[in-house]
Amino acid sequence: MKRVFLLFIGLVILASCGKQPKKMALQGLAQGSYYAVTYYDEQERNFQHEIDSIFHAVDMSVNLWVDSSVISKVNRNEEVVLDQIFIDNFNIAQEAAKLSDGYFDPTVSPIVAAWGFSYKVGDSITPQLIDSLKQWVDYRKVRIENGKVIKENPNMTLDFNAIAQGYTSDLIAAFLESRGIKRYLVDTGGEIMAKGEKNNGKPWIVGIEKPAENKDSEQVVQTRIALRDKGLVTSGSTRKYVERNGKRYSHSINPKTGYPVEHNVLSVTVLAENSVWADALASICMVMGLEQSLPLIESLDSVEAYYIYANEQNELETFATEGFKTLLIDKD
């Protein structure tokens, strides 16, 4: 599971010359994880109901665990009216797939399920099973036409889990903007969108987790970053995995091979203009690895990345792009 958690530092400072906007903090559980929304508002409005409604709308559109969601009906080849949330996620996923030359693929769902990283129990993995499922994996063979999803093979299914939480953070951010909120930090299960700064004029401080020994390990901060007006997402392999015959397999599956990746990158944190693209790019980097993904990251405007990987002695090392280095509070 992707892990980025917040380090809230300092106190709200009230100016003597007038009333400062009040810090509002909402939190709870959604989409199988936590959420935390912090914003400053002179009117001290509580947007809990509206934020809960956004989570519900996303669930009813692209949540694979909701039997009546739009994506569940699409995957079952049922008649369904596509809503804007589904269309947005589909288009973003297709764009990410093209950008990465298929290392990101929203049709990888059957293989994800077979390995056990989905809403259904995984099958016994064999090369024959993977080969049979790969025929249903190709983002180029699915499209939206006249308001309907057209598949070249009816057995093809879609999975937007790699971007849905980032998309949700951006939706909540857009809602806050529509209410005149200009300073906020939205964290949906580690997919973060930040705007502006805190009342004391300092940036939001976000902690990046050190790769864990296993899914139950205590969270430890690897480093911290000063964040303003950007989306930030970490994708990692040390908490979300399955074990088969004593071997641990990462949840990052290469759509080209049908197998979990086995390179030495343990986590990638991506900084982008919004959370959904940070989410997509972090997933792409985890599949491609450092050497393959770095040229892609460096070719994109306003995108930076921070890699944590194991060297030949199995010791942790890090690599940050130049723009990311300038934002680090704790220098490696």
Write up what this structure looks like.
The protein has 332 residues and is of the alpha+beta class. It is built from 9 helices and 17 strands. An 8-stranded antiparallel β-sheet has the order 2-3-6-7-10-15-16-17. A 3-stranded antiparallel β-sheet has the order 1-8-9, with no helix packed on it. It has a two-stranded antiparallel sheet with strand order 4-5. A hairpin with a 2-residue loop joins strand 2 and strand 3 (33-41). The longest helix has 18 residues, at 161-178.
Explain briefly what this protein structure is.
The protein has 332 residues and is of the alpha+beta class. The protein is built from nine helices and 17 strands.
Strand content: 25-35%
CATH superfamily of the domain at 76-161: ApbE-like superfamily
Sheet with the most strands, sense and barrel status? 8 strands, antiparallel
Strand order of the largest sheet: 2-3-6-7-10-15-16-17
What is the number of beta strands? 17
Describe the global form.
globular
Poorly predicted tracts of residues: 1-17
Indicate the percent of residues in helices.
25-40%
The radius of gyration computed from the alpha-carbon positions, rounded to a whole number of angstroms, is 20 Å
Shape-level CATH architecture of the domain at 76-161: Orthogonal Bundle
Which structural class do the helices and strands define? alpha+beta
Distance between the termini: 24 Å
- Rounded mean pLDDT score: 89
Order of helices and strands: EEEHHHHHEEHEEEEEEEEEEHHEEH
CATH class of the domain at 76-161: Mainly Alpha
H/I helix tally: 9
Reported by name, the CATH topology of the domain at 76-161 is T-fold
